[in-house]
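Session log. Operator J.P. requested a structure for one protein chain; no other inputs attached. Running the standard single-chain path with token output.
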Amino acid sequence: MPFAYIVRCNFTDPAKEAAWNAWYSGPKIAQMLEKPQFRACQRFHRVAGYGRDYLALWIVESPQAFTTAQYTSDWGFFEWEAYVTDWSRDLFDANATSEDSFAVAARGALHVVSFDGMSADDAQVARAALTPQAAMMWLPIVGLDRHTPLIGLAPSTDAPVSDVATAHAPTGRSTPRVQQAIYRPISDFYRAA
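Structure written below.
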């Protein structure tokens, strides 16, 4: 059973952003895919809607991926730590979804819906009120920071920016809210060797 490990963040220094993206989408992904139980990764940048600017979608075999000596000994963003803000790392049950289902083509998009700060019950009510998304995969939270009780992911070959509902704008860090965004790939879908 695969798990989706989703890391979301913002980056605060435009002068260093290209170098950070080159590092994260290159050496960092390669380093992490050498660790036990890390199966695949793809990175994205938000182009519309609300949410954090960057999203990394990792596929891992189990929650134990985060307890191995290889992971705990060197996972860090140490060089970039001062510039990474609003960082979250959440682990979701991928419900036996194949790795290929998460891959987004270079010209494609990833529609993401999250419910940061909401209870599981409130998130389910908010989810039911959304415009139906036939292709949306709804993944429940199972570990790590637990910023959102579930997340919706809909990879597509292309998604117009206008498809994102903007009615649920963030109103503050402590206020529960629905966030919908369109992300475009900034890396290929990489797999472990």
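Operator note: The chain has three helices and nine strands.
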